[in-house]
Design brief:
Layout (H helix, E strand, L loop, with lengths): L1 H9 L4 E7 L5 E7 L3 H5 L3 E4 L16 E6 L5 E2 L6 E10 L2 E2 L4 H14 L3 E16 L2 E4 L15 H4 L1 H13 L4 E6 L5 E6 L2 E2 H21 L3 E3 L13 E8 L31 H12 L1 H8 L24 E2 L1 E3 L6 E4 L2 E4 L8 H17 L17 H6 L3 E2 L4 H9 L2 H7 L1 H20 L3 H7 L4
Parallel strand pairs: 1-6, 16-17
Antiparallel strand pairs: 1-2, 3-4, 4-6, 5-6, 6-7, 8-9, 8-11, 8-12, 8-13, 8-14, 10-11, 14-18, 15-19, 17-18
Helix pairs in contact: 3-9, 5-6, 7-9, 8-9, 8-11, 9-12, 11-13
Bound molecules: glutamic acid and magnesium ion.
Length: about 450
């Protein structure tokens, strides 16, 4: 503790942000002077429980207090906020790990893996928009970002270099290995990739990325947006996860850990005829089998379902999954399998990374426990098939609305079991209210279509 305090002080940190993540995946917290680091790491700092979205905590009594206890390994100075550092917190209530804290939910699933000697690694690929508001309309921040096919646009990308470079440097200073940054498929849309890590660390990194993104875009006069689909006629923002399972930690000192998803032949040689080992296939089969319920966590807003559709875009396609299928290096499928890992293309930018990851692990472990078989791989372009052909092949569809996803979640004991009773109840209540509010809203589209029609 003394070491940590000295290390932070040496970086000029005088105040810590005790940060936790609410049900919506939004960073929350308070400032705690560095002098109180010890309290933050032992007892934690107190918050009014019922003020936190999704806590379900009562307004009075011993369970009304939510304690955010700092995880020392996450402590880092924040270059975009000189003098401040961030510590990701775990929720505690009445001295016990709080069952509905998203970080605790993920910890519970990590513990199930650890009990088997397994460690799951995720590489998260956030896509995001840089926006501005003009006369009440939301627009891409860059007016000149207007190419017909904006993917990899090298005219718009450098125009955002002030923000992108600041983001890159900030994340690097926090210890993240920034791998690449590109212009994505929509006007004003970008993607930044950083190195994979243990699933819990990756979720912490994603929250740090969002905090940096918001602060640095604001400083640059722009709005950083993780909204899944801001523009109806353009692709949305995914938050794909690359998933592999290992028998050791990323930072294993001996470097002996082995990727258990890499397939081998009976003689021990690498098997390059198939992407995944039997264990990997079972895990992936579990993730596919629970896809409809997983949608509620991975695509948790009403807006998410405007992304998860098959549709043309100005660049040809939206690249967002719609069908419950997998295929070797097939970006039109929900799971894109690669050698020794798979890319889970379901999550969008609004997903709470802790909850989406926890639910994905529960689904994968269920696949292993039930020794599920992965359905036949799809090698074709799924977006080119008609709905009739998709049905004929026995390929399932993802929910088409938040309400449908919530119904699937409510009926899936494996995923609700992973979330726990309180969080399941809170999640379904809050998200059903979101669906109802959206359904009752009379949109411009409706007025344009119906006002003078009948
Ligand atoms: N934007 C797409 C999505 O919503 C993904 C594009 C890509 O594959 O990078 O999933
Ligand atoms: Mg992308």
């Amino acid at each position: 503790m003394k070491d940590l305090k000295e290390r932070l002080a040496a970086k000029g940190v005088h105040t810590l942000i005790a940060q936790f993540t609410d049900l919506h995946g939004v960073a929350r917290g308070k400032f705690v002077p560095l002098a109180h680091l010890d309290d933050l790491l032992t007892e934690g700092v107190g918050f009014s429980g019922p003020s936190i979205a999704g806590s379900g905590l009562p307004r009075c009594g011993p369970r009304s207090e939510y304690w955010g206890r700092g995880a020392a390994s996450t402590a880092t100075a924040l270059p975009w906020l000189p003098g401040y550092g961030r510590i990701a917190c775990d929720g505690f209530v009445a001295g016990e790990p709080f069952d509905a804290c998203p970080r605790q939910v993920l910890r519970r699933q990590v513990a199930r893996l650890t009990a088997k000697g397994w460690h799951l690694r995720t590489g998260i690929e956030p896509e995001f928009f840089l926006l501005k508001q003009q006369a009440g309309r939301w627009l891409p921040a860059d007016d000149t970002d207007r190419l017909d096919k904006p993917s990899y646009d090298l005219k718009s990308l450098p125009r955002q270099r002030a923000f992108l470079q600041a983001l890159q440097q900030a994340l690097e200073a926090c210890g993240l290995d920034v791998l690449q940054i590109d212009h994505e498929d929509a006007h004003g849309q970008y993607e930044l990739n950083f190195g994979f890590d243990e699933v819990l660390a990756s979720a912490d990194h994603l929250m740090l990325f969002k905090m940096a993104g918001h602060a640095l875009a604001e400083a640059d006069g722009k709005v950083f947006s993780m909204m899944p689909k801001p523009f109806a006629n353009q692709p949305g923002s995914g938050m794909h996860m690359h998933i592999s399972l290992w028998n050791g930690l990323v930072h294993d000192r001996h470097g002996n850990s082995r990727n258990l998803f890499v397939p081998h032949r009976p003689d021990g040689a690498l098997d390059d005829s198939t992407p995944l080992s039997p264990l990997g296939r079972q895990f992936a089969a579990g993730v596919l089998a629970h896809s409809r319920a997983l949608c509620a966590l991975a695509a948790p807003t009403v807006n998410s379902y405007k992304r998860l559709t098959v549709g043309e875009s100005i660049s040809g396609t939206t690249w967002a999954p719609a069908y419950i299928a997998h295929g070797a290096n097939n970006r039109t499928a929900l799971l894109r399998t690669l050698h020794g890992r798979f890319e889970w293309r379901l999550p969008d930018a609004s997903a709470n990374p802790y909850l989406a990851s926890a639910a994905m692990i529960a689904a994968g472990l269920d696949g292993i426990e039930r020794q599920l078989e992965l359905p036949a791989a799809v090698d074709d372009d799924l977006f080119a098939l008609s709905l009739f052909e998709v049905h004929q092949r026995g390929i399932g569809l993802l929910p088409q609305s938040l309400a449908e996803a919530l119904e699937a979640l409510a009926g899936d004991a494996v995923i609700t079991g992973a979330l726990g009773e309180t969080l399941t109840h809170q999640f379904i209540a809050l998200k059903s209210a979101e669906h109802t509010a959206h359904a009752r809203h009379v949109s411009d589209w409706e007025l344009q279509r119906y006002a003078a029609m009948f």
